[in-house]
Amino acid sequence: MNFGKVEDPSAIDFNLPPTHEQTKQVLKKQEASKFLNVRVGCAKWNKKDLKNFYPKGTKDELIYYTSQFNSIELNASFYRMFPADQFQTWHDKAEGDFQFSPKVPRLISHLKRLNESEILVDDFISNILPLQEKLGMVFLQMPENFGPKNMDRLEPFFKHWPKEIPLGLELRHTDWFQDKAISDELNAILLKYNIANIITDSAGRRDLLHMRLTNETAFIRFNGANHPSDYTRLDDWIKVIEEWYKLGLKNLYFFVHQNIEEASPLLSAYFIEKLNAKFDLQIKIPETLN
Question: Model's pTM, two decimal places?
Fold first, then answer.
């Protein structure tokens, strides 16, 4: 994942911004209780990207991956419209309490840019339903040139999206986050349709750290820089998640990317260990060969 890549990560201020006031208002409406759903994983499971993660002789990468992690950010669904039987196959291979978070196909987000996409959305939803209990939060990533001038496309899309399927939105055009009036209008739409406001933590795009939740779910896409700072950045996220948990956070999706993906399992294992210790969780810590 080269998005937000920088030549010198040591020159970046990786401090996380303070929690947005909206997050406090949204979370305080939740009843005090423990986490309902905590998912940590990588963005890919193939051996080429996760080099040195799979033991020698591994025959099926997905089966092994699901024995080590409880989730994956399913980027494969972005590149093509997979048929229902493919999602059924993935469901059947996934061990135990595992969830997939499929990415909305680029045909819908990048080519159609949400316009006249109702039939495609219906097809996509129908295809992912075989994941059943292994379906996590679906996420919609819009291209960087999808700016506030396109805001009128969001509400019709969300209105058509089935309420039973949790959805998160990731926007990348910087104007969504720089103008308060635009941000407020965007968040009003997300709040109305219960769409999670995805947070992207990337070295070269600190503007995407809006820290502004729209429901009881935090969906965080962490893009490491293959640098020692990756670990201290994860420590900082533990502190923020603790703050949000005390406020009422119920669900956490935390997916680790790297410019060189082979380090993703190492960072994920480190993060899960910290989560388990902080929140008395029992998430399996992946075995790593590095």
Answer: 0.96
